[in-house]
């Protein structure tokens, strides 16, 4: 049997748009094709959370024709693509390398399975339902653990399931508090506290929790549930990439054997290391000695 020919970018886009329909993205989002010629042939696809310069270089060196990222490169208006800026350098690198860029952001968040299904699986949930419904689509998930556990044990299990990150996860709540019902929302999620409370979740797993909204949420809880876990933006969303690769492969059907799909191992979390503060570095009122 003759080996199948690699698909065109247009054919891959049809699969992607079917898996992550652009019209399910939130109105402020910028998803879909950013660079590339629909007629170009695709024989290698690279997947990553962020279209950083390092990711683009990794994809280029690997010989990729298409880079799929979760986060947009051009979310807000820009007035120059000069290489003196990071975005300009990224656009230039994509064009010079003839590397197409496709973004699946909030449309991948609400997809089933999507970003939050991967996070729910990491959190140990066997079944889950939408946490928030906006514009007719569900955002985030909430479900039950097969067996209740303490907040400490749950946080440890989650940390083990997530990709390695230098700053780990932050937890707020009673270490011995019981966790049975879990809400998850990959990426920034401190605008959904009201829905988390209404869901009856014992713990909320998300990222980018700001000081004031998180503090107010814990005050509202009066020390009880929902407890909070900030597991990091990159970590909570990177789990989706392998699921996406598998779904793209299935969508390509008999053309899949002619396309190599690769999930980037580069960590695009901006933080590199953690330094504890307080008693370990200060003694009394006189400062360091």
UniProtKB/TrEMBL annotation:
Which terms are listed as keywords in the entry? Metal-binding
The record's listing under SUPFAM superfamilies reads:
NIF3 (NGG1p interacting factor 3)-like (SSF102705)
Subunit composition?
A: Homohexamer.
Family label = Belongs to the GTP cyclohydrolase I type 2/NIF3 family.
Q: Per its record, how is this protein called by name? A: GTP cyclohydrolase 1 type 2 homolog
Q: Which organism is it from?
A: Luteipulveratus flavus
